[in-house]
Amino acid sequence: MHKRHKAVAATAAFTVALVLLPAQAVSAHGTMSNPPSRVYVCKDEGPESPKSAACKAAVAASGTQAFYDWNEVSLLEVGGRHRELIPDGKLCSAGRDKYRGLDLQRADWPATKVSPGSFKLTYHATAPHANSNFQFYITRAGWNPTLPLKWSDLVSIGTFNNQNPTTFTNWTVTLPQRTGRHILYSIWQRVVGSNEAFYTCSDVDFGGGTSSATPTSTRTTTASPTPKPTSTATTTASPTPKPTSTRLPTPTPTSTKPGGTWAAGQAYRTGDRVTYAGVTYQCLQSHTAIAGWQPPNVPALWRRL
């Protein structure tokens, strides 16, 4: 009888394991590792204590779990209907709220330096699937990283069908002439046995950009030299204008009274109340607001009242 009980217990444990395995396997597939995708970058920085401002904002918007599940930016039933199922502005998250932080429209995402010409891509697949199609795109010339990423912004740079990826798979594409920041976008579409598809956004920097999209906090455009006077002396020098007041006004943070409207660039303190889209929120942590940190997006910073 004792041996029979052991056999029953072992069978039960094995059955439970079989029940759990499919759910775990579904969430383990892959993402771009070179150039690293946004989710891969923030995963490497550490979901609990990211280093870059962009990853901090993404974690604040999505929570940490999204970056532990870095290989799951996917949709189950796609079958090639990418543009039909994923709306403009949500391409990096595959339209999934869990990964909404990846869609933040910022010009300071950590970016890989690249140049026009031949480039080797690397895809990190934690669960490779045979008979898969891979498509790669680059954003169009003149694309602005502070605007929503749309399907119409993407230009194809390579399609590889009927592929049998391994854990790390390389493809070579040709990057077109570009300047400044861009996104390299990929779609991994399974063909046999599943309609599942995976999506990645990798930030790249071609350099030479002079647009306002270049972040002033991490990279500046070519600085103009300080203009030199045309003469060391002037015949009729104008007196130095005197300030009308010797005191500078102290910057005032957004009002703490209920009803104040949330705004990027404003400093908020714990307990402050603001309104956004007609809803009142209370500040949970002191911070200075930036674009993408709207109260509904960052529950760690704002509590809906």
Characterization of the model:
- This protein is of the alpha+beta class and 305 residues long.
- The chain has two domains: 24-205, Coagulation Factor XIII, Chain A, domain 1 (Distorted Sandwich); 260-304, Carbohydrate-binding module superfamily 5/12 (Seminal Fluid Protein  PDC-109 (Domain B)).
- It has five helices and 15 strands.
- A hairpin with a 2-residue loop joins strand 12 and strand 13.
- Helix 2 packs across helix 3.
- Residues 1-28 and 210-258 have low confidence and may be disordered.
Distance between the termini: 61 Å
Portion of residues in beta strands equals: 25-35%
Largest sheet, strands/sense/barrel: 6 strands, mixed
Rounded to an integer in angstroms, the radius of gyration calculated over CA atoms is: 25 Å
Q: Low-confidence stretches at least 5 residues in length (pLDDT < 50)?
A: 1-28, 210-258
Indicate the CATH architecture of the largest domain: Distorted Sandwich
CATH superfamily of the largest domain: chitin-binding protein cbp21
Helix/sheet category: alpha+beta
- Strand element count: 15
Q: What form results from the Cα inertia axes?
A: globular
Mean pLDDT across residues: 80
CATH topology of the largest domain: Coagulation Factor XIII, Chain A, domain 1
SSE pattern: HEHHHEHEEEEEEEEEEEEE
- What is the number of domains? 2
Q: What is the count of DSSP helices, taking H or I runs of 4+ residues?
A: 5
Specify the helix fraction band.
Answer: 10-25%
- Indicate the CATH class of the largest domain: Mainly Beta
